[in-house]
Request: fold
Amino acid sequence: MQAEKQAYSFDSLSVVEFLVKWKIPILVVTLLAAVASIIFSGPTFIKPRYKSTVVFYPATTNSVSKALLNENAYDRSDPLEFGEEEQAEQLIQILYSDEIRQYIIDKYDLMKHYDIKENSKFRYTQLAKKFSDNIRFRRTEYSSVEIEVLDTDPQIAANIANDIAALLDETKNKIQREQATKALQIVESQYLAKRDLVNRLNDSLNQFRGMGIFDYDLQIDHITDVYVQAVAGISDAKAKLQVLRNKGTAETDTGIVNNESRLSGAEATARELQKQLDLLGRFGGAYNSVKEQLEKENEELVKLRQRYDRAKVDVDEVLPVKFVVNSAKVAEKKTYPLRSLIVALSTFGAFLFTLLILIAVENYKYLIARKQ
Reply:
């Protein structure tokens, strides 16, 4: 009966009575936890870290020539347009590249800066973890990209963030330049081969011109007309001479002399024109073939020249790959640790843990009492 009374007394014990009964242990443990958390969260045990952030938007333009030299307005990209999710994710992948990470590690000697022992068996694993813990990249809800750097030195944190942002342009442009250089080599070889072919065709046309063939269609029409006139002149001169001789005109007569001169001139002209017609007949087809091919090759050469010029621009010139909204500044206040939060959580945790221990003690006493 007494045990049941004690059990009832314990079960109905109010929280206030319980706290008053154990106020000394609770206060001591809670105060000790508060003091300990204040001490151990201090800079002596936990080095404060400062945060610097760079925020930028990706650019949509990858090719300078496509953005600035493309004559097709529908296929021309706007170099001033902000990129969206896809471009942001591409830049984040480049930010995680080994080239950028190694440059930052070497420049700031992070192995030493992070206090990683050089004789440690897993020093590179430790370095990679420290790097990923202190340097982070993410895409924001506004499709911008954020570079966040934490470091015990606020100046180094800002420098690293700004250096990574600058390296992003250099790294992406380097990757694109490698591709553009290969493309330029291909286009250049095609352009030079086409230019050599055009030069050879021009040399062939110059040979035809040296032979007297300048424009087959015009020449054949003109020479044919003149040849017909010369033949008509021969026939006319012969007819008039025949008429005069039939009349018994003396050979020294002016009419016979003039018509013989006309006949000789017309025959000479006809012979010369016949030579030209023969020449055009022999080489006119080849001339037209070379001329038509040259016109076609010149059109292709112009297109290749444009492609070559654009490829050369892509190799020689670059555009920024991002629009920086905020550059990293030197932080004035530490970001980590939050001592007030650590002290509050530690103190409350100690208080709660003490209550649980005391409740367990009371229950243990109750069980002992029941057995007696």
About this structure: Residues 1-13 have pLDDT under 50 and may be disordered. The beta strands are 50-58, 135-139, 145-151, 322-326. DSSP finds twelve helices and four strands in the chain. Residues 30 and 352 are 9 Å apart (CA to CA).
